[in-house]
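note to self: dont lose this again. the chain is below, predicted strucutre after it. 389 aa total, dont forget to put it in the shared folder this time
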Amino acid sequence: MDTRQTERTGPLAGVRVVELAGIGPGPFAAMLLADLGADVVRVDRPGGPGLGVDPAKDLTNRNKRSVLLDLKAPGGPAAVLDLVERADVLVEGYRPGVAERLGVGPAECLARNPRLVYGRMTGWGQDGPLAHTAGHDIGYIAVTGALGMIGPDPDGPPAVPANLVGDYAGGSLYLVIGVLAALQHARTHGEGQVVDAAIVDGTAHLTSMIHAMLAAGGWQDRRASNLLDGGCPFYGVYATSDGGHMAVGALEQRFYAEFARLLGLPDADALRGDLARWPELREAVAARFRSRTRAEWTEVFEGTDACVAPVLSLREAPAHPHLAARATFAEHGGLVQPAPAPRFSATPGTLRTGPALPGADTAEVARDWGVPALHPAQDVPPTQESKTA
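---
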């Protein structure tokens, strides 16, 4: 038994997860489960996913172990089913029907292990007219209405929010929620099931509050025209004199009063209460922010209830005093990365291992999981690039 997997390393310690290697939201969901203490075994394919990402720096594979199996070769599917028999959860992100054709679909897996939670991560879902077509985050959030809400100009194009809204918020997080709910059901009733996590479903679900406001007449179906989408002059982003930016979220009256006082804004209450004067208010706020640097304004608002924060880059964020004090970011193996979240008082998540290199743990997993079909000869040594990374 691998003692690393029996230590109190998170609330999911003892849960076994098989991840069929893919890209994007599936691996991130499996990383979340691993961060929470699950023993995640990633089944990598020979040749990798083809994106050219150095496996030694792929943070979505941290806290996992990897075996190398060719699901199109004789014995490959059988070895996966041997793992499935000993697992609690399987995660896959193939297009609908691919896992079935490979012989590791829900029917085969649940026949082998009736208590298994079979998690499926796709963009369009397992059915529907677009289910079998290719897609990416931007298309999924486009058709759900989420993309159309984002951007500074109601008449210009929407702003692309990286792939955070679709892949990870609407995709990975909903897959993890579904898997954990199904795992609870399996442990209570002894019955496994399939979790169909579609990015379009999750992203649409994320917009529930906006739909409620729309139905109540409190939201215009028009970008940059509402309280929370940049349409409000005291909820938005402003440039500073040095090219930086400050984020303002002074919605409530008491926070707005503090914001206006520190900003040095005249006629603050009159401008706030008159929607017809909001363009005037926006320009007044913008002019004030343009008068100082980001660092200067950060010092002015630091520690106040004005609800103003500097807009930091990815490289700057780990050094923010609050994030540093909470250790929101951590360094492991020379890589600065977000620490596991959320936090638990009794069973904290940890950064136990760096990114799993493809096939590097085959012999260890074969021993720990009792799957002799995972032959050590399938191990793949780290590349020279990985050794020196």
